[in-house]
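Hi there,

I know you've been waiting on this one. I reran it after we fixed the sequence typo, so this is the corrected version. Both the input and the resulting structure follow.
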Amino acid sequence: MHYMELIQLLMTEKNLTQEQLANILGVNQTAVSAWIRGTRKPSYDSIWAFYEKFGIEPNEFFGL
């Protein structure tokens, strides 16, 4: 699963808006929107925040 799909799935499962997810991860809503569109990849710090907050392994972002 590609990181864009993974983020959308997480948002659906947790019933989160882009803004809510951004607040949880400590980024702005524009970053989340760019990740979902695939115009920008999450930074290492953001990937680590996904792991800390939601238990998503960093390798899952890369389909490993």
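Quick highlight: Residues 3-62 form a domain with the 434 Repressor (Amino-terminal Domain) fold (CATH 1.10.260.40).

Best,
R. S.
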